[in-house]
Specification:
The complex is a heterodimer.
Chain A (H helix, E strand, L loop, with lengths): L7 E12 L2 E13 L4 E5 L6 H9 L6 E10 L2 E2 L5 H10 L1 E4 L13 H13 L3 H14 L5 H5 L8 H14 L4 E5 L7 H18 L2 E6 L2 H7 L2 E6 L2 E7 H6 L4 H8 L52 E3 L2 E6 L27 E15 L10 E15 L3 E5 L6 H9 L6 E6 L2 E2 L10 H6 E4 L13 H11 L6 H14 L16 H13 L5 E5 L7 H18 L2 E6 L2 H7 L2 E6 L2 E7 H5 L5 H9 L7 E3 L39 E3 L5 E3 L4 H5 L5 E3 H5 L1
Parallel strand pairs in A: 3-8, 3-9, 6-7, 7-8, 15-20, 15-21, 18-19, 19-20
Antiparallel strand pairs in A: 1-2, 1-4, 4-5, 9-10, 10-12, 11-12, 13-14, 13-16, 16-17, 21-22, 22-25, 23-26, 24-25
Helix pairs in contact in A: 3-4, 3-6, 4-6, 7-19, 13-14, 13-15, 15-16
Chain B lengths: L1 H8 L1 H6 L2 H25 L10 H16 L3 H19 L20 E3 L2 E3 L10 H37 L1 H15 L3 H12 L3 H27 L3 H8 L4 H37 L11 H10 L7 H31 L1
Helix pairs in contact in B: 3-4, 3-6, 4-5, 5-6, 5-13, 6-7, 6-9, 6-11, 6-13, 7-9, 8-9, 9-11, 10-11, 11-12, 11-13, 12-13
Classes of the chains: A alpha/beta, B mainly alpha.
The structure holds iron/sulfur cluster (2 copies).
One iron/sulfur cluster binds next to loops of chain A.
């Protein structure tokens, strides 16, 4: 191994951007050695410089970016001494990049076949027919069904997951030495993501391609990579073999990161998450010395804040390096970050009950002057039934198209239910649009939204937006009183009081989400619907916002409906879980029931698909075939029948499955025999147990 | 960052550089000018008194504008051109100018002295001073141009918001009407409307509104369609807010940015349109000075090539104003892209 030349080597790489405010260092002193066939992960939060590294390797720095120090060696040669012509050749054939957004790499007006064929025609001088044949083989290798049809489609005619596979196929066609993957699955659903991850792993084996995998998700990195670099605020803070870093992390930031993601052992009462305090420094406001210092509990004045820090090798393991001055003094076992255990909350009476709630949309393709076009029915929600009690957290889990947002709309009164009942206390909401609801009913139901950049109106001040809710719901009307409540709410969500006068653009994503939470709780709601409230935030801020949301809920004994696709988060904070697929509830039960057999086949696949950043557990490997069907054209019989590994032909694709009940409240919608369902093996097991 | 260092060095000016004082200053500049130009005759002999407060307001606004725009030299040039004419407009009665309507010495070429008066820009065919006509002439173009554009914006934005936010039948009807109006060539629309209503300043406003509002409505509708999917609009809906509240308080402030840029460009078009209409005899009527009229009159003069200054003076004035508006739009767009 040692006599091989590394495919890629970065030595003391420094990259800066030049803006009006002056030079902004984006990446400082970055080192990386990538051996042939190796997969290297770069993990970090937004603004940590991970994508900048990828762009520098591709030499796509743009007008205002430049490599200001160090070198990048590709197969032993410094890329900065190469001519433009040479660089272009290397970029096309030896280094390929896959971006988060597949459409960024595809030409929307060209047939996929033609786009793919271009690569071998240009690089290997193949004839068009040969090139097309190669393209077809490659599409089959990236496990796309029916490659012929895909060759003759335009990019927009296939789904997002398929597009990403096409992009990977395109990258592989030139037979690259190095594949750069920049968050390749972030835009995809979990079960589709699992398929791509499997594909990436197969590529590594089959083609021997070296890979750099950039992600914010530690679990994904664990599943795909051999080595790992953790970046924070423009610097690599920890580098090493993936198992070394995961099991014996030696940097306070890495440790903090692991403490703030819900791993299987976490529990909202006994082992709450520990958030990293504070937030990422802006690039031009980085502190002297260690960038992590303002957030680090081990900070020592005079040691951590002098001069630039170097990478120190961890004794006994040359490959494992950390950028921390005190890592040898810290007792890593004793000083584990621990959250305070909180007493469990006992749920009260039923607050919200949903009974056979059904919502169908009629899509009429006619317009004003064309009536009676072909009308189609989209069954967004089919016979949903569940209950939520006071102070309880019910998670609604599902991927895109499962109908969770439609359900939220019906609940909030923006859509009428087609059938069935939604009862909040003794008020029926299903047929009561929001403009017919009285003030107190509206105030009882509030929502926290997903996208921090969308949740607040950019034109109004924070105080004004919270104040509006207070006035609207008649909590207070007097100016001074409203102000007082706004201040109190800002205190509750742990924001400084003078934020009331600020505009949203002066806030970070996490702060905006806090304001969103304050706004939702301003009217003293009974039920709060939280629609993926933290999924768009940086990992280190997620925990803080999640904990805050749960603390407020705990205090007010609010019922929370937590909509999410992320089962690890859900396992951590939910009391009951409802799993939805294509508008139907496939399974519901308490959190323990959902995470242990018997499973619904879809729940089982979902559990297996979620990447877990924990080397102590083992996961069963289940990858679903195909994609989620469109809700406007769901399969007959069981909605899951097109992808289900247990599918019983002749039954599942014809008849709607029956509801199998396993004890109180645990129901599974499936044709499989209850005995067979009970025989399923757990998806996630501790590793020790797996070895037995 | 830029804002904070202004605050440090110029506390007074920066306190003015906030929405409320700026709006107050704008009104202080605009209302007197509008009153003077539109209703000067009814106000009577001392009409020019109303313009007094507008002069300092214009100067302060100009300084504020330069400070706010200083990062883009394009915008600064545009602003300077526009404010030059604004300043001329508000201070015309106080400048040492000859009476723009008094015939003195016909066909005097620029920079010559006749009858004991020195004519910087010469005189026209009736012998009226070109310099004074040029400066007085900007009043009407500015006032009617800006008023017409504003009215068109109010109407266009209102329909755009309704059509974008409420969708459904509202949208179908409004979009249909807009498409019908847009299918006419603008000039034809102007000529038809003004022929029907008769030429006057107010009718120009009506004509410009008919011609511009559909395009504005489309822009606002597009923006509204995008913004109404945002979570904060959803939040307002689930709070039970009235659609009118949502349109005005949630949507309107956020379509402001792109609209302001478009408004600057459209001010340019409207200026062209008004000048053209006056040139065609459909707009403002003689004898008061107006650039369009000046062009019209000079175009009728025989041997134009010899007296080309008669045409050049008003033509260059119009061009500089339009250029000012366009540069301002460019500068604004450039600045909005940077943030
Ligand atoms: S160098 Fe100091 S502040 Fe930085 S991570 Fe290490 S202990 Fe914390
Ligand atoms: S009913 Fe059939 S297709 Fe549906 S989940 Fe059960 S086994 Fe799978």
């Amino acid at each position: 191994m040692s006599d091989q030349t590394p495919v890629l080597e970065c030595r003391n790489l420094c990259i800066s951007y030049y803006t009006r405010a002056g030079e902004i260092p984006a990446v400082v002193d970055f080192n990386l050695k990538l051996m042939p066939g190796e997969a290297h992960g770069i993990v970090g939060e937004s603004g940590c410089g991970k994508s900048t590294v990828a762009l520098a390797i591709m030499q796509y720095m743009g007008k205002n970016g430049a490599i200001v120090g160090g070198e990048i060696l590709f197969e032993g040669r410094d890329m900065r001494t190469m001519s433009d012509e040479e660089l272009r050749r290397i970029r096309g054939s030896k280094i390929a990049m896959v971006y988060q957004e597949p459409m960024a790499s595809l030409n929307p007006s060209m047939l996929i076949g033609a786009q793919l064929a271009e690569v071998p025609i240009y690089h290997d001088g193949l004839s068009e027919a040969d090139a097309l044949r190669r393209a077809e083989e490659m599409l089959a290798k990236v496990r796309l069904p029916d490659p012929k049809r895909i060759l003759n489609s335009y990019p927009h005619q296939i789904s997002g997951g398929q597009q990403q596979r096409v992009v990977i196929a395109m990258a592989l066609l030139s037979n690259p030495k190095l594949l750069l993957l920049d968050e390749p699955t972030t835009a995809l659903d979990v079960t589709v993501e699992a398929g791509i991850v499997e594909l990436i792993n197969e590529i590594a084996e089959e083609f021997g391609t070296s890979m750099i995998y950039i992600s914010h998700n530690l679990g994904l990195i664990l599943e795909t990579c051999d080595r790992l670099t953790v970046m924070y605020s423009g610097e690599a803070v920890e580098v090493g073999d993936i198992h070394d870093v995961f099991e014996e992390m030696r940097h306070p930031y890495t440790r903090g990161l692991f403490g703030s993601i819900p791993l299987p052992g976490a529990d909202k009462n006994a082992h709450p998450l520990v958030a990293i305090p504070g937030q990422l420094p802006l690039p031009h406001e980085r502190p002297e010395g260690c960038n992590f210092a303002p957030r680090c509990t081990f900070f020592r004045d005079g040691l951590c804040n002098v001069g630039a820090l170097k990478m120190h090798p961890v004794p006994g393991d040359d490959d494992h390096k950390v950028r921390c001055e005190r890592f040898q003094e810290i007792d890593w076992d004793r000083d584990l970050p621990k959250g305070e255990a909180k007493p469990p909350v006992l749920p009260g009476d039923t607050v919200l009950s949903v009974e056979n709630m059904t919502k169908h949309y009629i899509i009429d393709e006619g317009g004003l002057f064309v009536s009676g076009g072909d009308a189609r029915t989209v069954k967004a929600n089919e016979k949903l039934s569940f209950e939520a009690r006071e102070a309880e957290t019910v998670a609604i889990v599902g991927e895109s198209g499962c109908g969770k947002s439609t359900f939220a709309k019906v609940l909030m009164g923006l859509e009428d239910a087609t059938d069935g009942k939604v009862m909040l206390g003794d008020v029926e909401l299903g047929a009561l649009p929001v403009d017919k609801r009285d003030k107190s009913t509206i105030a009882k139901l509030q929502m926290v939204f997903q996208n921090p950049f969308d949740t607040l109106n950019p034109s109004h001040t924070i105080g004004g937006q919270i104040g509006r809710v207070i006035r609207k719901f008649g909590v207070a009307s007097d100016e001074a009183e409203v102000n007082e409540i706004v201040m109190r709410l800002l205190d509750t969500v742990k924001l400084p009081r003078d934020f009331a006068k600020r505009k949203p653009r002066q806030l970070s994503g996490g702060q905006k989400q806090r304001v969103g939470i304050a706004r939702a709780f301003a009217g003293n709601p009974k039920v709060v619907i939280a629609d993926e409230p933290v999924s768009a935030l940086d990992v280190s801020v997620q925990a803080a916002v999640t904990e805050l949301l749960m603390d407020i809920q705990r205090e007010n004994r609010t019922t929370m409906l937590f909509i999410s696709h992320d089962l690890s988060v859900v396992r951590y904070l939910a009391d009951r879980i409802v799993v939805m697929y294509l508008g139907r509830i496939m399974e519901q039960g308490t959190t323990e029931e959902i995470f242990a057999p018997p499973y619904h086949p879809y729940t089982e696949a979902l559990l297996a698909a979620v990447p877990i950043a924990d080397t102590r557990v083992e996961k069963r490997h289940i990858v679903l075939k195909g994609e989620i069907p469109s809700p406007s054209n769901p399969p007959k019989g069981c909605p899951f029948s097109t992808r289900c590994p247990y599918m019983i032909p002749g039954t599942c694709d014809v008849d709607l499955p029956p509801l199998r009940s396993f004890g109180e409240g645990h129901g599974i919608l499936c044709h499989l025999d209850p005995a067979e369902l009970s025989k399923m093996e757990p998806v996630i097991k501790p590793r020790a147990q797996a070895a037995e | 960052m830029a804002v904070t260092d202004i605050q440090a060095s110029q506390p007074f000016l920066s306190r003015l550089l906030r929405p409320r004082p700026v709006i107050a200053l704008l009104l202080l500049m605009w209302l007197p000018l509008m009153a003077y130009v539109m209703f000067g005759k009814t106000i009577g002999n001392n009409a020019q008194m109303v313009l007094l407060p507008a002069i300092p307001a214009t100067l302060i606004l100009y300084i504020l504008g330069i400070r706010a725009f200083r990062e883009s030299w394009v915008a600064v040039i545009g602003l300077t051109l526009v404010f030059f004419w604004l300043l001329m407009a508000v201070s015309a009665p106080y400048l040492p100018l000859l009476d723009p309507n008094k015939p003195i010495a016909p066909f005097t070429t620029p920079f010559t002295e006749r009858k004991d008066v020195f004519f910087w820009l010469g005189t026209d065919f009736k012998g009226r001073d070109m310099l004074s006509r040029m400066i007085w002439g900007c009043q009407r173009v500015l006032v009617w141009g800006v008023t017409a554009t504003l009215v068109a914006y109010v109407v266009g934005a209102l329909f755009g918001l309704i059509s974008g936010y409420l969708s459904g039948w509202w949208d179908e009807i409004i979009s249909f009407a807009a498409n019908v109006l847009l299918s006419f060539p603008v000039m034809v629309l102007f000529i038809v409307i003004l022929n029907y209503l008769g030429p006057s300043g107010f009718n120009i406003v009506v004509a410009v509104t008919f011609a511009s509002a559909p395009a504005i409505m489309r822009i606002v509708r597009g923006l509204a369609l995008d913004i109404k999917t945002r979570d904060y609009v959803f939040a307002a809906q689930t709070r039970g807010e009235h659609p009118l509240y949502i349109m005005i308080f949630e949507l309107l402030p956020n379509v402001r940015g792109p609209i302001i840029v478009d408004a600057c460009l459209r001010l340019g078009y409207t200026t062209v349109a008004i000048t053209t209409l006056t040139f065609l005899g459909l707009g403002l009527q003689p004898p008061d000075p107006d650039w369009g009229l000046m062009i019209r009159e000079s175009a009728k003069t025989a041997m134009l090539w010899k007296f080309s200054y008669m045409l050049l003076v008003p033509a260059l004035s119009v061009s500089s104003l339009i250029l000012g508006f366009n540069l301002m739009a460019d500068g604004l767009r450039e600045m909005s892209l940077r943030d």
